[in-house]
Amino acid sequence: YDLKYTIFFQNLLNTFVKDELVYKLESLDTGDMIIDTTPVPKREHLDIDVPIKQDIRIEINETHKYKLTVTFLNTAYDQSSNRDAEYYMTLGFTPSNKNKVQLLDAYSRDTDPLFSEEATTDEGIYSMEDDYGTSYYYRGDVKNNYVKFAGFYWRIVRLNGDGTLRIIYDGTQAHENGENSLDRTVLNNVAWNELEGDAKYSGYMFGASNPSANYTDATTNAENSNIKNVLDAWYKENIEDRGFGVFVADAIFCNDRSLDNGSGFGNTPTRFGGFKRLRENANPSFTCPNKSDAFTVSDTTKGNVSLEYPVGLLTGDEAMAAGLGAYNTGSTKNYLYKGSWYWTMTPDSYADGKTYSFYINGGDIAKLKAEDSLSKGAVAPVINLTKEYAKTLKGTGTMTDPFTA
């Protein structure tokens, strides 16, 4: 697939009083004027990375050549105020010397994939809006999204819209795509919830009343699910207590309890929003419909401030976007395959006294399905690295050269 890059002024200095210092940028390959006569941005101190032309496409093995012309205009009025003016600039191009993680947008495709079809090859990077802005996500048989953090290997799911980096646990050592290993999850015998008989038990957290009397009662985040307790304990021991929590961001984990049909409380059959998006329409979303389902630690603007620790699970939507295909289809040729089946964050439905949640199947292929929440599956923690920490990551993202701070 092709690449997009940005041309920028690096270490720009321009103290000219008026817009008398101008520039133009011409393509030597086509003769086209990329940027016609334009004032040089004013900067009183050396500044870095001032973009002048973004999202230029270049194909593999293609070369682009440019001519930059800077002119001090000869005007009819007195220009003596510029006698001591200075300018300095270097023309730069990204991502030639930039952190590749922070430049996923430069690699992203312009079109949306067909989510109903499995991605059996490395399809690269696509974009989708999330609650913070534009998110960039990996899709398919990806081999360059490995991260090593806190002594564990992880895989990048997406760059969130706020610049934080969402990663999913993948073992104490690096594993190839398609490799079946218990090491790729942290626990392998965990029920989503150990309670049934009420639609509220689809929640990562849920209301305290038994039975729940209304939807608000059911979705009040008062008590923890079993899987939340498991994740919190793992995070505290392996991330927080070892001093790595300062590098983890407070970004939304969406436990979408919006309604497709039914009431969402008590012993009433219910289909949640994920049922329609993922089972019926194969149309995933990275936005969380209800603030009460947007789990955060301290973010009151976007989230519900119900978490003790900033850890959660992959959503069913993220799994489908990553290339698992329509409901109950899939492939081992996907970076999310782990061999064991493991839970997602997304509720499916409530029927016959049982709550069902989406999970990623193990065995021969990875596929998105739904299972009774009493069933015992594996757990693959998901965290978000801070934007500042993500900027420090070096490497190519491969198994042998993972992104590492």
Describe the structure.
- This protein is mainly β and 405 residues long.
- It folds into 2 domains: 3-98, no CATH class; 106-391, no CATH class.
- The protein has 6 helices and 25 strands.
- Strands 8, 9, 10, 11, 12 and 25 form a 6-stranded antiparallel β-sheet that branches. It has a 6-stranded antiparallel β-sheet with strand order 17-18-21-22-23-20.
- A hairpin with a 2-residue loop joins strand 10 (146-149) and strand 11.
- It is elongated, with a radius of gyration of 25 Å.
- It starts with a strand and ends in a 14-residue tail after the last helix.
Relevant terms:
35% strand; mainly beta; single chain; 405 residues; 6-stranded antiparallel beta sheet; 11% helix
Tell me how many strands there are. 25
Q: What is the share of helical residues?
A: 10-25%
| Tertiary shape | elongated
Q: Report the end-to-end length measured between terminal Cα atoms.
A: 28 Å
- Whole-number tally of structural domains: 2
- Whole-number average pLDDT? 92
Largest sheet: 6 strands, antiparallel
Beta-strand share of residues: 35-45%
Tell me the radius of gyration: 25 Å
Structural class: mainly beta
Topology:
Blueprint: E1 3-14, E2 21-27, E3 33-39, E4 43-47, E5 50-58, E6 66-72, E7 87-94, H1 104-107, E8 122-129, E9 134-140, E10 146-149, E11 152-159, E12 165-171, E13 187-191, E14 205-206, H2 215-219, E15 223-224, H3 226-240, E16 253-254, E17 259-261, E18 270-272, H4 273-280, E19 294-295, H5 316-324, E20 330-331, E21 342-351, E22 354-360, E23 366-372, E24 376-379, E25 382-385, H6 387-391
Antiparallel strand pairs: 1-4, 1-5, 1-7, 2-3, 2-6, 8-9, 9-11, 10-11, 11-12, 12-25, 13-24, 14-15, 16-19, 17-18, 18-21, 20-23, 21-22, 22-23
